[in-house]
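Lab meeting notes turned into a lecture example. A postdoc, R.K., suggested we walk through two folding results consecutively so the class can see how the record format repeats. The first protein's sequence and C-alpha cells come next.
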Amino acid sequence: QAIKISNIYAISGNTIIESENNSVSYTTYYYTKASLENVPLYYLNMTASPLNAGVLIPGSGYYYAGSKVAISEKPNQGYVFNGWDGSGNENYTGGNKTAIITMNSNVSEYANFVKLVKMYVNGTYNGIPIYVNGVSNITTNGTIYLVPGTKYTLSFLRYISVSNGARYLFENLQ
C-alpha cells in the first residue's frame, strides 16, 4: 500500500513506495513520478528442477530495473538442494542456498534438487541408532534418507537397550 510522497517514488522489487517527504531511508532506487513510467520491468522466472521438488522464494514475477531480489529455496521432504543455474544479466549460478540478484534484464533461476533414496531399517521400535559415516542418525519409523551416488559407511550397535530395560540384538541388514 502506497504512502503519498511529494513526487518521489522509491522502487523496491516490484513494490512502489511513496512518501510524504524526501526523507525516506530506504536502500533502493528513486525516481520522479514522470520518469517512473519509463523504468523498465524485467521478469524473474523461478523454476524447481525436478518440478515440485522444493519451494522457491520469491515466486516468478516482474521487478523494476535495478531491483535487488533475494532468492532462496527449501527442499520438499525426500529431496536435497544441489545448486542454482541462472541465465540473464547478473543471475546467480552456484551452490549457496540463498543469493541476491540484480534485475537489469530478464533472469531465469533454476533450483536443482536431488531425490534422496529411502533406506528402511527393520527395528522392533522407533529410534534405532544407525551410524552413517560415523555420525549417529536416529530413524523415524525405520527410515533414513541417503543422497544417490554418494558412498556411505553404515554401522549399527550390536545390542540396544531401551528405557524399560529391554535389550535388542541387531542381526542383519537386508
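The second example is placed directly after the first for contrast:
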Amino acid sequence: ARVLGGGLAAAGDASAGVILRGVDPERDATVSGIHGHIENGQWLAPEDPTGVVIGKRLARSLNVKPGDEVVVPAMTFAATANCVAFMGATPVFADVDPDTLLMDPASVESKMSDLTRAVIAVDYAGQPCDYDRLRNITDQHGVFLIADACHSLGASYKGRPVGSLADITCLSFH
C-alpha cells in the first residue's frame, strides 16, 4: 500500500482507483468479488466512511486547493459539488445530456480553464459516462478524471469495466 495523502492509502496498479465506503475488501467476500471485476483497480480505504470526509481527503491527495476549479455535472447528488466546495475550490457545473442524463463532454470542454484541476464524472442509472471523450478532454488539459460510479457498479464501457476508466473511481454501497 502507498499513502496518497490526506489519510488515503492505496494498493494495486496506479492506473485506476476505487474508494469503498465502510467496507474492508480483505474481509468482505462481496467486495473481493467486485475487486476481481475491476481491472487494474486500487482500493482506497478511508478511516472514516463518510462521503464528505472521503471527498476532502481525495481532493487533498490530488492537491485541489482554494482558488482551484473542479468540473462537476449540473445534475447529481449534492456531495459531488460539496466535496469540492469544502476544500475551498469552486465547483463548475457542466450540463448533462437530456437523453442520457450523463455529463455532456462538449459542456465539460467549454468549462475548462487554467484553474481547472479535475473533472468528476457521475455515472447514472447503470450507464457509464462517455469516458473516451472525457479522457481526451482531461488529458488535453492535464487534469485528473474522477469517476463517481455508484450508479454503475458492475457495468462496462466499450468492453472495459467500470473502475478502469478514470484516474480514480469512487464506489459506495448505499
